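User: Okay, second chain of the day. Same drill as before: sequence in, C-alpha cells out.
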Amino acid sequence: MLATIDPIALKFGPISIHWYAICIVSGLLLAVYLAQRWAPEKGIDPENILDFILLAFPIAIIGARFYYVIFQWSYYSQNPSEILAIWNGGIAIYGGLIAGAAVLYWFAKRHAIAVLDFLDITVPGVMIAQSIGRWGNFINQEAYGKAVSHLNYVPEWIRQQMYIEGSYRVPTFLYESLWNLLGFLIIMGLRRFKKGLRQGDSTSFYLIWYGIGRFVIEGMRTDSLMFAGLRVSQWVSIAILILGIVLLYFRKQRPEADYKMKN
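Assistant: Same drill. C-alpha cells below.
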C-alpha cells in the first residue's frame, strides 16, 4: 500500500483546514496581488480589485459547486446531505468562471470600468490561480486519467498519490497545472514586451489557450462529467475557444485609436 497525502493540512479542535482550500486561497491571493499591481495601467483603482474579489469569490465558489452538483444530480439527489460538503472536493472550475465572469461584468458596468480592461488585468492571475488550484485536486486524488502500468516520468511522491483504486492513474491534474503555468508565463512575456499588445489581447489569449488545453486534457480524464457524448468541460472549452477567436478577430478589425492602452 503506497503512502498518500492526508487531505487535512491542519486541525484546531473540531476545525479542519484542508489542503484543497489552502491551494484555492493561495491562488486567489496571488491573483488579487497581480491584478492590483496592474490595475493602475488601465486607470483602475486597486481598491476596486479587492472589492470585486470579496463579492465575486464566494459567488464563484457557489457557482462552481452548483455546476458540479447539477451534472452529478443522480448521485446528489440520493445524498442531499453531501451537496454542501465542498471540503470533500467536487467543484467545477467552469462553473466558477461563469459565475465570476457574470459578477465581473456587472461590477465593471457599475463602476464605469471597461470590461475588457478589467478582464485583461485579471486573467493572468486567474491562470496562475488555476495552476495552483489543480494541486488541490492532486491531494484529493481527483481529476485523473486512465489506469496505467507505471508513472516513471514523474517524481515518486506524485506516483504515490496517483495510485488510486489499485492502479496508477494518468496525472491529468499535473498536465493542466503545467499548461496553465506555461500560459501564465507567456502572458507575462507578452506584458513585458507589450508594445503591440492591445485591449482585449490578454483576454483573447487566455480564452484560446485555456480552451485548447482544457479540451485536450479533459479528453484524457475518466472522472469527468458527461453530456451528449462529450465531457461537459469539452463542450464549454469549445465555446470559450470560439469566443476567444471571435473576440481576437473583431478587436483586430478596429483601428488602433479605438484601443485604450496605457504604456
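The longest strand covers residues 8-12.

User: Thanks, on to the next one.
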